[in-house]
Amino acid sequence: EITRPSMGSEDFSYYLQKVKGSFFRLGTGKSEKGAAEYWHSSRYDVDESALSVGAGFMAYLAYCYLNLADSSN
Fold it and tell me: Measuring CA to CA, which residue among 57, 50, 49 is closest to residue 23?
């Protein structure tokens, strides 16, 4: 659930004008603490359990990409 929508911007879109790529956000805030600090705050506390989710997702994307490349040969 998104409690505060964000219109956040990212310079990564400029890279995508030159090369193929993708971008996703991985939620790493700890919602049980109430009002979470923002990413660039010195008080931001990362939920480290989200890191394995992100790593797993990126590994899955690599696996799919490699299988797609392999099946096209």
Answer: 57
Neighbour count for residue 64 (Cβ, 10 Å): 10
Count the alpha carbons within 13 Å of 62 in the hemisphere toward its beta carbon: 6
* Contact call for residues 47 and 28 (beta carbons, < 8 A): yes
Asked whether 47 and 30 are in contact (CB, 8 A), the reply is: yes
| pLDDT for res 15 | 85
63 alpha-carbon distance from chain centroid: 17
pLDDT digits (tens, 9 = 90+) for 7-34: 666 788 888 889 988 888 888 877 665 5
